[in-house]
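Give me structure tokens for this 165-residue protein.
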Amino acid sequence: MPPWITNLKRASFWIVARTCFALYRWFPLFGSLPASLAIIHREGRFLVIQRSDGRGLSLPGGIGSRKEKEEETVRREVREETGLEVTEADFRLRYSTNAEIPAEVSVFEVKASGEVKDSWEGPARWMTVKEIEPRLIKSQRPVLELMKKIVEADGAQPATRNQEP
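Here you go.
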């Protein structure tokens, strides 16, 4: 795809995302929205999206569609944002947030296959918790402690900086 099309898509995402978040923050017509996040980790690193809307880093995931189950949401969002196919999704955590918009967030530890690809929402990157922590969007900060526990349980050392897991 030509770079100008990619840039146009990312600029469009910035406009749409910022507008929708602002409007829903002011007028939460449907109350707390259902959302799902994926924790995808390999060799001490986690897959995150450098958001094209300028809000920082986020885990793959997003708002669920009407009547969509939590696990269906996480599978769809991972595919849309990273190009990966979820092979396993284990529910790990649920929390409420009003940090950006009112949401009930379900967090899944996910195993996925395929080749990581960027999306209009932003490029996907493998990073350590230490690299992620200062830049993770506010609404996803409750997940940081779980990510730290996952790294401790794995006992994995992060790959070298430029090496992809």
